[in-house]
Amino acid sequence: MEKIKIDTEFIKLDQFLKMVDVAGSGGQAKIMVFSEEVKVNGEVETQRGKKLRSGDIIEVDNKKFQIL
């Protein structure tokens, strides 16, 4: 699991996917989320604007990330 530190209170899911280079653009991130390819804390997430906070675990493309 890769640990990702953010310097703000939260980051939106679509921004996070771009930041960790899982999605190449906001449009690609949107498609991944709406296609139910992304899990947050073990549950499929369909809101691309979902606020991720410290401790959240994101799973996508057989990769896991934890927000610090």
Account of the protein in words:
The protein is α+β, with helices and mostly antiparallel strands. The protein has one domain (about 1-65): Roll (Structural Genomics Hypothetical 15.5 Kd Protein In mrcA-pckA Intergenic Region, Chain A). It is about 25% helix and about 30% strand. The protein has two helices and seven strands; from the N terminus they run ββααβββββ. It has a five-stranded mixed beta sheet, with no helix packed on it. It has a two-stranded antiparallel sheet with strand order 2-5. Helix 1 crosses helix 2 (about 25-35). The chain is globular and about 25 Å long. The mean pLDDT is about 95.
Short structural description:
The protein has 68 residues and is of the alpha+beta class. It is built from two helices and seven strands, in the order ββααβββββ.
